[in-house]
Design goal:
By secondary structure, the chain is α+β, with helices and mostly antiparallel strands. It folds into 3 domains: 121 residues, Rossmann fold (3-Layer(aba) Sandwich), CATH 3.40.50.20; 150 residues, ATP-grasp fold, B domain (D-amino Acid Aminotransferase, Chain A, domain 1, 2-Layer Sandwich); 68 residues, 2-Layer Sandwich (Dna Ligase, domain 1), CATH 3.30.1490.20. The strands form 3 sheets. Strands 9, 10, 11, 12, 13 and 14 form a 6-stranded antiparallel β-sheet that branches. The longest helix is centred in the C-terminal third of the chain and has 19 residues. The radius of gyration is 20 Å and the shape is globular. One magnesium ion binds next to strand 14.
């Protein structure tokens, strides 16, 4: 069977996606699948092959030297020659699409819509779940409906901000206390997110977030541990043990600490009482159903010292390198990386067949 592994993409999370693609390539290339890597450049061109353009720090993170990586790619004839691939070439019978794109245009339902039109099975969330999961404002509304606990927040539309800044600020002051977290509605990897300690910082943070999206949200900041649960399945939902992101300081988990500093460790399973772990897993399954998830989702929570739980967000295409939280959570729940990749492909086929 042929797998089209689609990675890269125009979003700010381009580089992370390349890392994930390398991990999956290493895993499935020597199996019974024929893998065709499809690289979407930052400019949006679709090229056939494995790019060698990854930043060196990213190769290091995967314990791959540029030489090794190039050798792997060349050996398999996968190295990017800059040959364009058209969407028509992807439409093949008995092929599965494995998109490992993060953020807008990859994780938000747009490319999933293309796969629906191609009428092919694809790994992960469908159009609706991708769109709802990516949009932090919409997902919060769905979580409220599903009875999931979350911190208070205020959605802001750019036009309203430009028309009456004072009114928006007054509302933030009325409902929220500092610190506040300000986020673009549709992004990931902490891009465009700031923490504000006072009104001056809040204004700057809203302006920053608005550079990335025309809708942003201001959230109540909480002092809490960060715990994540992996969800896998279609209509039958399975959850992993929770894992904690342990940060060296109590600063927030920003882009720098996520991918560059190596100051973050993962504690799997999270050191939490059994009943708190069970509650987190139930909430994760509920969140998955609330957005109509399929395939995979990583559900992020805040857990306070007295074990109060708030759901933060869901990621329908979480980081998926061998060293990422999502696969490590499954590894610790009894499913290794290789079997996980296989399971995701099978879930994609199953969902496609059920739809026919
Ligand atoms: P990703 O998709 O990579 O997980 P993201 O860009 O979708 O991240 P969030 O997970 O919402 O962003 O936030 C990024 C980080 O900012 C969190 O992991 C946490 O460290 C911090 N943070 C976000 N919201 C809050 C909050 N309300 N209170 C305290 N910290 C927060
Ligand atoms: Mg996210
Ligand atoms: Mg994300
Ligand atoms: Mg997150």
């Amino acid at each position: 069977m042929k797998i089209f592994l689609i990675y890269g993409g125009k979003s700010a999370e381009h580089d992370i996606s390349i890392l994930t693609a390398y991990s999956i390539m290493k895993e499935v290339y020597y199996k019974y699948y024929e893998v065709v890597p499809v690289y979407i450049t930052k400019e949006g061109a679709w090229l056939k092959g494995l790019t060698l353009d990854a930043p060196p720090t990213h190769l290091e993170a995967l314990h791959l030297t540029a030489g090794e990586e190039a050798a792997l790619a060349i050996k398999e004839g996968a190295v990017s020659t800059g040959v364009p691939i058209t969407i028509a070439e992807i439409k093949e019978k008995d092929a599965v699409i494995f998109p490992v794109l993060h953020g807008p245009n990859g994780e938000d339902g747009t490319i999933q819509g293309l796969f629906e039109i191609l009428d092919m099975p694809y790994v992960g969330a469908g159009v609706l779940a991708s769109a709802c999961g990516m949009d932090k404002i919409i997902s919060k509304h769905l979580f409220t409906q599903a009875g999931l606990p979350q911190v208070p927040f205020i959605p802001i539309i750019k036009t309203d901000w430009l028309r009456d800044e004072e009114k928006v600020l007054a509302k933030c002051d009325e409902i929220l206390d500092y610190p506040m977290f300000i986020k673009p509605a549709n992004l990931g990897s902490s891009v465009g997110i700031s923490k504000a300690m006072n009104q001056e910082e809040l204004i700057a943070a809203i302006e920053t977030a608005l550079k990335y999206d025309r809708r942003v949200l201001v959230e109540q900041g909480v002092e809490a541990r960060e715990v994540e649960v992996a969800v896998l399945g279609n209509d039958d939902v399975h959850t992993s043990v929770p894992g904690e992101i342990v940060k060296a300081t109590n600063e927030f988990y920003d882009y720098q600490s996520k991918y560059l500093d190596n100051k973050v460790t993962m504690q799997i399973p999270a050191l939490l009482p059994e009943e708190v772990q069970t509650q987190l897993r139930e909430y994760a399954a509920t969140a998955f159903k609330a957005i109509d998830g399929s395939g995979l989702t990583r559900c992020d929570f805040f857990v306070t010292d007295d074990h109060e739980i708030f759901i933060n967000e869901v990621n329908t295409m979480p980081g998926f390198t061998e060293f990422s939280m999502y696969p490590l959570l499954w590894e610790n729940t009894g499913l290794n990386y290789s079997d996980l990749v296989e399971e995701l492909i099978q879930l994609a086929i199953k969902r496609f067949e059920e739809k026919q």
